Amino acid sequence: MHDAKKSGLDIPSSGPKASMKKRVCSDGKHEAYLGVAVTLALTIVGCSVSPAKQSEHPATLAANLDSYPSVDQKLGEHLYPDEKPIAEKLSVVIEESIRKQYSAGSARRDAHPKAHGCVKAEFNIVDTLPEALSKGMFVPGKTYQAWIRFSNGSGDPTRADIKRDARGMAIKVLGVPGKKLLEDEADAATQDFILINHPVFFATDPARYLSFMNDANSDHFYRKLLIPFDLGAKGTRIALETRSSKISNPLQTRYWSMVPYQLGTGPDREAVRYSVRSCSDVVDPMPKEPSHDFLRDVLRNTLQNDDACMEFLVQARTSDRMDVEDSRIEWKEAQAPFSKVATIRIPRQTFDTPQQNEFCENLSFTPWHALPEHKPLGVTNRLRKVIYDHISRVRHEMNDTQREEP
Ligand code: HEM
Questions:
Q1: Fold of domain 4-399
Q2: pTM score, two decimals?
Q3: Who contacts 340 (Cβ-Cβ below 8 Å, separation ≥6)?
Q4: Which pLDDT score is estimated for 55?
């Protein structure tokens, strides 16, 4: 069993002061009638219910907008019109949606609110890692401790695991030395990697993404019919594909970063994407009579008996056609193979305790908990710098919980 105290994976005792309130939402009741638009609205971004309250974080939001990321033209980045004001508007729209959906003490993540569990892991960098990949925290032979949160993508935390959905894997590597990119958390010792079980992201143009969020969160039902127009044919197809998966075990699922990251600094820096897969090809059959939260049960039962093993992979871009801004474009493995950078060992453990679940709920993941050598790239990541920080603050303030990196 894993020794939490020795590894630095000990859990502070503070937590949310109230239990979760049931989300007031139609839970896809109308999906059969209104097809694509409603499915997208209710399962990708959730639904809205009652009037919102003003933000209590205008100062930090303004500071985040002041330090909006600059673009790296050498790596193919370029700004879209009005990115900064759109990042602010998106932050406000998402904040309003959370305040409508949850009452104080019960706020959840806007996306991926349902966790299957937070597990302790070891992130072991490959001994023989080539020099070209040995950048930032990728130090050959080094072992880090980590937390991994597995989740469903739907904004509805009460949704049954057997229903089709996107699946998330958020890794928080601990004890990573060096100044980090977030100004407020520059001294945090964490490096996060956030992945979903689909290779591409459904949106790229921030103005269209804002229209999508506005329509998805509107109280007027007809606005949800506009969603496919906001996303366009390609975005709609990717969104539907992304939320269509059924999985039998989160430890046997393949995940991708969807969006790119820098590797290294200086003249030889490059753009990469990440992926994580199981060390073995074994995939459990789908259960015949799945319980409502069967993915948590599977995770608990698997780790009760055995260690689990996953591989962390890096895909270096091999052509300018592998776009850094447009994350709807897949970087095909045939043209840009993945290289193994680390083994993720998830030791046999008991993770499903009230204390650890509470700790998990209070964690904040963002691609910007990162060293400069792993700087997030592209418009989606630039928007996320502002939005994730703001939404995490709102969530913690609503729950009256401490917001701190482990
Ligand atoms: C502009 C686009 C995006 C927006 C507005 C957005 C928004 C959010 C928000 C508000 C949260 C909750 C943050 C918190 O409360 O701490 C979240 C969590 C998450 N997002 Fe995104 N997201 C975007 C793109 C992506 C992409 C491209 C991925 C692909 C990997 C992704 C994967 C996740 C995952 C896995 C979580 C859950 C992390 C956890 O376990 O805590 N998101 N997102």
A1: Catalase HpII,  Chain A, domain 1 (2.40.180)
A2: 0.91
A3: 126, 311, 312, 313
A4: 66
